[in-house]
Amino acid sequence: MRELLWISPTEALAVVLATVGMYLAMLLFIRILGPRVLSGLSSFDLVAVIAFGSIIGRASLGEIPRLAGGIVALTTLLVLQAVLGVVRRLRWGALAVTSDPILLMAGGQVIERHMRRCHVQPGELQSRLRLAGIRHPSEVAAVIFEPTGAVSVLRRGERIDPMLMSGVLGASLLPPDLLSDPA
């Protein structure tokens, strides 16, 4: 029974190293592919996320999963999350881990190169606009692909405070009449 539940210190170290390696690999893939990987999961995306989890779990725990190995892997992931939270507070950490928000629409104009960069398909953008209650592109002031993978839709009407566009890639493409004067 003991061999089914517990692992040796060497096995525990192997679980930690495998878990750290898989975690860093996943962070790298998300950084390369962008936050689109985790946003607005379609059925295909959900299958991919489940497969990713399965691969990470299998690689972390090895051929014969054990309770202790699972606890070590889970603890390692939680520690990595905590460390990443601290690193993101540092300027270089935020630059390494977090993507910039990207302008997808300036007024009613779709910015195709930004759509491609974010891996957002026209149908997905149209869906986000409908969810925001947009009935016509002329109602749009700006659409921003956020670092989290969410899409923010800002309506025409009230002018946008330039502070809200600070750090947004492509903010200079917004027509000046959509922005309020900086106070």
UniProtKB/TrEMBL annotation:
Assigned keywords, A-Z: Cell membrane, Membrane, Transmembrane, Transmembrane helix
Stretches of the chain forming a coiled coil according to its record: none
Domain YetF C-terminal: 96-158
Main location: membrane
Subcellular location: Cell membrane
N-terminal signal peptide: none
UniProt topology in membrane: Multi-pass membrane protein
Superkingdom as given in the UniProt entry: Bacteria
InterPro entries in alphabetical order: DUF421, UPF0702_alpha/beta_dom_sf
Cell cycle among keywords: no
Cellular component GO terms, alphabetical: plasma membrane
Keyword Transmembrane helix: yes
Transmembrane segments annotated in the record for this chain: 12-30, 37-61, 67-87
Pfam family, one: DUF421
Family as reported in the entry's similarity comment: Belongs to the UPF0702 family.
PANTHER family listed in its UniProt record: UPF0702 TRANSMEMBRANE PROTEIN YCAP (PTHR34582)
Protein name according to UniProt: YetF C-terminal domain-containing protein
Native organism taxonomy: Bacteria, Bacillati, Actinomycetota, Actinomycetes, Micrococcales
